[in-house]
Specification:
- This protein has a single domain, classed as Rossmann fold, CATH 3.40.50.150.
- The protein contains six helices and seven strands, in the order αβαβαββααβαββ.
- The chain has helices spanning 8-14, 32-39, 53-69, 106-114, 117-120, 134-143; strands at residues 23-26, 46-50, 80-84, 98-104, 125-130, 147-156, 159-167.
- A hairpin with a 2-residue loop joins β6 (147-156) and β7.
- It is globular, with a radius of gyration of 15 Å.
- The N and C termini lie far apart (32 Å).
């Protein structure tokens, strides 16, 4: 499989994932980031979700190409779990270490995080990349007791994207 080069935005998000962390990519679309994280050996397991069947089909095709390119044994078929659904609703509590929500507006990210506070609080950390209303998201995080662990920016197609690494609750998180 010819590997697509990650954009600077995806590279910046990938840098926030520690080796051995399982991930969920909410709104995965093309699945470039989870495919990269699994293929490179960073993540042992990835849940890929999308609210729409079309983007999930694109993700399934990308995952299929990766699996087909792997040696016959082991094929690693079980490292990807693709799910159709809204936000965190399709995840079990604490099912993965890191949740990635990227490429949607800050208000959409907030609504995903607010939908089920208990489940939201069960994941160790989040990588958030709002396309719009980042100030609104940052204010919500601060007002809701979230611990912002780190921030970085990356340019994509002439646009500056902010990536926020954070954890629910005010306790310190050892990055």
């Amino acid at each position: 499989m010819r590997e697509k080069k990650l954009s600077a935005r995806f590279e910046a998000m990938a840098a926030f994932v520690r080796a051995g962390e399982s991930i969920a990519d909410i709104g995965t679309d093309h699945a470039l980031l989870p495919i990269y994280l699994v293929r490179s050996g960073v993540s042992p397991f990835a849940v890929l979700t999308d609210i729409s069947p079309g983007p999930l089909a694109k993700a399934r095709a990308g995952v299929g190409k990766l699996i087909a390119s792997l040696p016959a044994a082991p094929r690693n078929d079980g490292v990807f779990d693709l799910r159709l659904g809204d936000g965190l609703k399709v995840l079990g509590p604490a099912e993965v270490d890191t949740v990635i929500i990227a490429g949607v507006g800050g208000e959409t990210i907030i609504s995903i995080l607010e939908a089920d506070p208990d489940k939201t609080g069960s994941f160790k950390k989040y990588i958030l990349q709002p396309r719009t209303k980042k100030n609104l998201l940052e204010e919500w995080l601060a007002g809701s007791g979230w611990n912002v662990i780190g921030k970085t920016t990356a340019e994509e197609r002439g646009r500056l994207c902010e990536i926020i690494l954070c954890a629910p609750g005010e306790e310190n998180y050892d990055r």
